[in-house]
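Example with several molecule types.
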Amino acid sequence: MAISSLLLRPCPPILPTKPTAENSHRCYTSNRLGLRCLTCKNSLRKETAETSPPIGATLFSDSEYKHSWLEELKRACPPEISSQQWENDDEKFRELVDKRGVDNVRMLILDSVNHAKAGHPGMALGMAEVGYFLYRHAMRYNPRNPKWFNRDRFVLSAGHGCLLQYVCLHLAGFQSVQIEDLKRLTKLGSRTPGHPENTITDGIEVTTGPLGQGVPNAVGLALAEAHLAARFNKPDVAIVDHRTYCIMGDGCAMEGISHEAASLAAHWKLNKLTLIYDDNHNTIDGSTDLAFSEDTSARFQALGWKTITVDLRNGELKLFENALLSAYGETEKPTFIRVKTTIGKLSKKEGTSKAHHGTFDEDDVKQMKQKVKWENHQPFHVIPMIYREMQIQADQGEKLEAMWTSKLHYYQTAYPEEAAEFNALLHGGLVPGWESSLPQWSITDPVDATRGYSEKCLNQLAKVLPGLIGGSADLASSNKAYLHDCGDFQRQNYKGRNIRYGVREHAMGGISNGIALHGGGLIPFAATFLIFSDYMKNSIRLSALSHAAVTYIMTHDSIGLGEDGPTHQPVEQLAGLRAIPRLLVFRPADGNETAGAYKVAVANRDVPSVIALSRQKLAANVEGTSSDAVERGGYIVSDNCGEELPEIILISTGSELCLCEASANLLRKEGRRVRVVSLVCWRLFDRQPQEYKEDVLPSGVSKRLSVEAGSPLGWREYVGEKGSVLGVEEFGASGAYLDAFKKYGFTEENVTRIAKSLLSC
Amino acid sequence: MAISSLLLRPCPPILPTKPTAENSHRCYTSNRLGLRCLTCKNSLRKETAETSPPIGATLFSDSEYKHSWLEELKRACPPEISSQQWENDDEKFRELVDKRGVDNVRMLILDSVNHAKAGHPGMALGMAEVGYFLYRHAMRYNPRNPKWFNRDRFVLSAGHGCLLQYVCLHLAGFQSVQIEDLKRLTKLGSRTPGHPENTITDGIEVTTGPLGQGVPNAVGLALAEAHLAARFNKPDVAIVDHRTYCIMGDGCAMEGISHEAASLAAHWKLNKLTLIYDDNHNTIDGSTDLAFSEDTSARFQALGWKTITVDLRNGELKLFENALLSAYGETEKPTFIRVKTTIGKLSKKEGTSKAHHGTFDEDDVKQMKQKVKWENHQPFHVIPMIYREMQIQADQGEKLEAMWTSKLHYYQTAYPEEAAEFNALLHGGLVPGWESSLPQWSITDPVDATRGYSEKCLNQLAKVLPGLIGGSADLASSNKAYLHDCGDFQRQNYKGRNIRYGVREHAMGGISNGIALHGGGLIPFAATFLIFSDYMKNSIRLSALSHAAVTYIMTHDSIGLGEDGPTHQPVEQLAGLRAIPRLLVFRPADGNETAGAYKVAVANRDVPSVIALSRQKLAANVEGTSSDAVERGGYIVSDNCGEELPEIILISTGSELCLCEASANLLRKEGRRVRVVSLVCWRLFDRQPQEYKEDVLPSGVSKRLSVEAGSPLGWREYVGEKGSVLGVEEFGASGAYLDAFKKYGFTEENVTRIAKSLLSC
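Resulting structure tokens for the full complex:
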């Protein structure tokens, strides 16, 4: 029987995403030897046996396989369980096979940590049941194509437990994690770094480690699925349909970012999101009693989650399976499964924070191995049948992918228009010619704030980029970051492309990372005031580290925002953001530069960007700015020097560029050779060839003045030893924009004064 | 009857902090004309009348006063309430007086916003009842001494509603807010900036505006009270005994930082903390339905709070009074009062987000005034009797302070030893000679990580500084930031000086700010990994802005932390922190510099500091470092140049200084004149006189190399145009410390190589 027809048979789903006539048949799993539908008991083993073996797996005939397990279980089973109890009891047999799988996961964790002499075994050992069950029975993935679009997404928010995931990826047949990789845990250049990194290891969806971040990542992945499903699925065919799983620990549960994200997930009723809370009652400093007394389940209920508690301390996988089944049946709420576990399970340190990280002593290792009858195995031993066990799930994934591909073909025939758009998204979402949609402005257009120009760019892009989606942390109107006619993403309208984050900047960053890394071609933007980049700094950093191409739209970008005062006036934020590796920070000076910034930001699909924009209307339009020049980071805006070198160069960004231009014009009238340079993106300028940089900022010109209403930090690089930096070295002050600008010297008069004093040196 | 004897009469308290025989009599309030105990009904009016008049108040004889109110109420009372209903009904009369007080608060808000053409009237108008009631009936304060130690603390976490507080401060008689100040709302240099700033306006306890921050500030204030009360109160005399109030809005309720802080407040059972939630169902972008569906009260219950809901939309103050009474009676939990209000109350924009900020049009203003019979008053009108009303509360505060002072005298006699310590705290907590407790190290001492040196400094300081208190975000052991033998701050031991924050960096920052600004002489420290400064960036900024002298102990300060990889390896954090105005960022190179950093950090009681410390053991001790030199920010560590200029200067910080020293020694052996400079705190060095800076970094030496395992941003300032910067321009990598250091060039060999290439130019 071909898999496709198998999958169309009308047996009820066991681990369904959401039971529908259409998808009920890819929900089978195997809870017995081989591949078999849990409910209708139809054996699917034949198909499994036909597939290629997993890496490291030993091939067995069916009879050999069963026989080998019998031998293994007789050897390893606790003496109180006689073999008669399970030899002819399929359920019990399956239970013991799974138990042995969990043992194997634990032993690989133990061996890896002790071999590397580093790592965090505590959570990994405690959650072995969960990891094993997810990869063996629950999740849909294809190790031969880890990027298969419709795979389930898994996020390990408690990233320090990555060894659990590495071991599961290895057993499941992901090429990315071989035994040799486990041996190189945390070592330089390994594929098994100390925290999971999506850019290094196939099978890792997002980079985690900073606690709490994985929760919004998972919410973003689930949001992306809900959005794409709403847009593209049809009554007769669902081409977007996967679940999202996230494991979080006590630390994640304490971090505010997880509270924010959890509140939004419930607001959006993302019912295909399952959050698994490793409730092991320990953090680094000791028992959670030290600082954590809340009723976490009740809190999640108050937020609007379905909550389930499962005690896995005795290894009863059935309890966890039931919890997942219950989650799958939920249609209105995301599900929070609180799993009680024992940190450092098996070790003499178990149940204490001492097991959180570090190795085990020889005696402990010996006892741990004895407890699971492992003492005669070499380190990194894998029971050969375990590879085959995991292969069953992997094979299913491969078949699911094949089925999904068939569906996609059908979809292309039945819905060619939608299919074209979907296809564009699968290829990154950049429709040819999208750049030409960006508006252009001329010197005679009315002057606006750069946030005003941004609004026009964003809305033009929304028309041509099907994947553009995003929102603001309750400042859509102030940030001018609302996509008109695109609707709000809400439960009743998952098609909506405006995301209402509420006042939750940090979750917004983490969710945007999830959307960007979903792989569905979505192009997320996230908007707030520049000052509140402070609230989401770590998420922005993770965008850059994990190659999540989020566009951060940050308005009210200087003391020029005026009356709201120093709590809202960014000063040091640009410097702090510029220091983040890989991140592109733009501070455009007008409409054309704003369009140019968007062009670079959108075009680079593995680099995040910050576009800093003014609240206040610019003082004037500037002739000579350029959209195309933005990609070089810095360029000459105006110059009256002809073949000669300028006497002085005024370098600026954003809303201060027009001050420089005005001042330059004044000096030029006095006969001075003055150049004005826009340094709209430092990093891009730094990457230009030396000749270009020399052309723009000739080393022969030592009289340079930088003008930017922010921290002076870093400007010396561009003005040189003899240049001057006009910046803001204090916190700003409440006051009208022009008063605040005057107080800190950002007037044409003061710029001219400093320039003249440089010229007279 | 003297106030002191009045206060000793055995009538039960009405608005007690916590009823005890000792304090039951300062709990009186006035809910009728004049001052009267709500419960025993004894009039206290005589005492009140004898006090000096409030600023702007008109003096009345008692009969005039009552008469004037009768006239006012007859004029302003809604026609449906006949004067017979209240003329002889004290309760009703008081209710109407209070109602008129609330009207007056609203009208001042309206006038101020319209006069300034800026500000946020929405929340201020909606919460007028709460503001009025707190300042008129509930809070204990003395406008003539706003810093009175035992005052109740009030935090406006929804800082944009500051106009409500400004108006209340004005009516209550605080010199800091005159009518002229209200007229200058948000204007440059005014005492009424766009968000409340404690360094500008007496009566403002903490600087708020960034949403959510006020909640941990309030938790910190309540923690400080609980700690000091536990240490100093005696069975017969309580010298530390005040409540803490905090108003938060929907935005604060969404921000993760408030979730973190609320979880801790309940864990610590800070029952004297009252959090008032302005549930007006609106944020900037619209109805909270857009992004906020949770059951906030249930969430707070799950965290461990007592919760009360009050509907104030009809102005029934009695409901709020009852809620406060209930909060005062709670001995085990902090109290969360959810107050339903109408944003922009009175305006035609009321109940909508349009009322959040901005002015009102002429027609609206007219109607608003008509609604409260205010149409015949000039702008900024204050009913004269309102000043006198508020004066009653202010007079009480003055008397309470006098009583507290008497108590303190008694305490000094009865408990001289504790009194001496308490007195030291009241004067800032710096006991003479405290600096000498700091350890010193010699070149022959075993080499440690700088976090190890920090541990010793911190523990020595704990012995001599009675106010040193702080903790870590679940990394006490890794940060080595635990005060041995000082106990944990927990409900059963408020005396403990180690605060267990759990994994809640952002709340830790905000709570530390509250502790620092409590005024009880506490010297807070807050510890985490340097990378997680990202999670608390805005709180650190607010420390600097609000002069909260928190010492941030940030370990694992570079890629040198090793195996945990790039998610945990700070790269750009030092640059970002150095850009924050006022903040002192230290990166000490050994034990002596660590001691020096603590010395400066502790000595400066209005400036926060970050001390960045290594996880890894230093490569070697360095001869020539100095504790005393740290206060100059940078100094010469070693030099073989005699009277000549060096050929090259190696500039470094922290764990890389010993690399430079080793490299310098090698170059010196080859006959080179090499200077090594430690630039332990850029800001302090920048503040030195030009000659000193020239002595350390002579402009004649252009060959300079900076070596710091972090972002190069900013180093150009010190190495000059021709110098080289060895920094980290990418994210780090998982790997053993020495492997990671080698990968990025932080080896003696590479430093020497670069130095030589500079020398050969």
